[in-house]
Write a structure and sequence with these properties.
The complex is a heterodimer of chains A (about 120) and B (about 120). Chain A is mostly beta strands and about 120 residues long. Chain A has strands spanning about 5, 10-15, 20, 25, 30-40, 45-50, 60, 65-70, 75-80, 90-95, 105, 110-115. In chain A, the strands form 3 sheets. In chain A, strands 2, 5, 6, 10, 11 and 12 form a 6-stranded mixed β-sheet that branches. Chain A has a 4-stranded antiparallel β-sheet with strand order 3-9-8-7, with no helix packed on it. Classes of the chains: A mainly beta (about 120), B mainly beta (about 120).
Chain lengths: ~120, ~120
């Protein structure tokens, strides 16, 4: 069975600086998707970024980028120029590419990101 | 973008009553919907997966007679918490996935905060 591990329960960063959130996963599959979701205090789940395992190029979305290391099964999220609005819980998630799993997401425990003004 | 509407956002009711939560995909057809439960400061816990027109598949430990899920159309799924008790108080989130390619992400509702007195 697949697992997702986020080893940092909480991280803090000074506003305008860069922070990296860690995520590792375990799978025997070769084709899958990885996601980072943000959950602010409003508790709405917001998709931050998505990575397809067969793509070697790391995904980027404005200030958000990932470092995807397939062999190491690592999928870290880098947030550049941190803003107060980035304060939230961040969840890493895994999904098989095949439909056999009903496209269920496997979730990490989450990392609480605190932005210091 | 794909929008999922979840209603109500907050409900308070007396112990022993049944509560229905609706999850609607507003601008796409949701072949698969997911229901999650989230305890404070924890990750999302998948309760069940439902495919339109089929019975829901419940995760281990989730009482299907307690948490009734109906996915009768491609745009609506409902979760009914029957004979609710204080221990059922929690944050419930639905998500929906549309038809199409395997890379279709899940789109989340804004969640329902359920408080049982």
């Amino acid at each position: 069975a697949q697992t997702v591990t986020q080893s940092q329960p909480e991280m803090s960063v000074q506003e305008a600086e860069t922070v990296t959130l860690s995520c590792t996963y375990d799978t025997s599959e070769s084709d899958y998707y990885l996601f980072w979701y943000k959950q602010p205090p409003s508790r709405q789940m917001i998709l931050v970024i998505r990575q397809e395992a067969y793509k070697q190029q790391n995904a980027t979305e404005n200030r958000f980028s990932v470092n995807f290391q397939k062999a190491a099964k690592s999928f870290s999220l880098k947030i550049s120029d941190s803003q107060l609005g980035d304060a939230a819980m961040y969840f890493c998630a895994y999904r098989s590419a095949g439909g056999w799993s009903n496209y269920q997401l496997i979730w990490g425990a989450g990392t609480k990101l605190i932005i210091k003004p | 973008g794909a929008v999922v509407s979840q209603h109500p956002s907050w409900v308070i009711c007396k112990s022993g009553t049944s509560v229905k939560i609706e999850c609607r995909s507003l601008d796409f057809q949701a072949t698969t919907m997911f229901w999650y439960r989230q305890f404070p400061k924890q990750s999302l816990m998948l309760m069940a997966t439902s495919n339109e027109g089929s019975k829901a598949t419940y995760e281990q430990g989730v009482e299907k007679d307690k948490f009734l899920i109906n996915h009768a159309s491609l745009t609506l799924s409902t979760l009914t918490v029957t004979s609710a008790h204080p221990e059922d108080s929690s944050f419930y989130i639905c998500s929906a996935r549309g038809t199409g390619w395997a890379d279709q992400p899940q789109h989340f509702g804004d969640g329902t905060r359920l408080s049982i007195l």
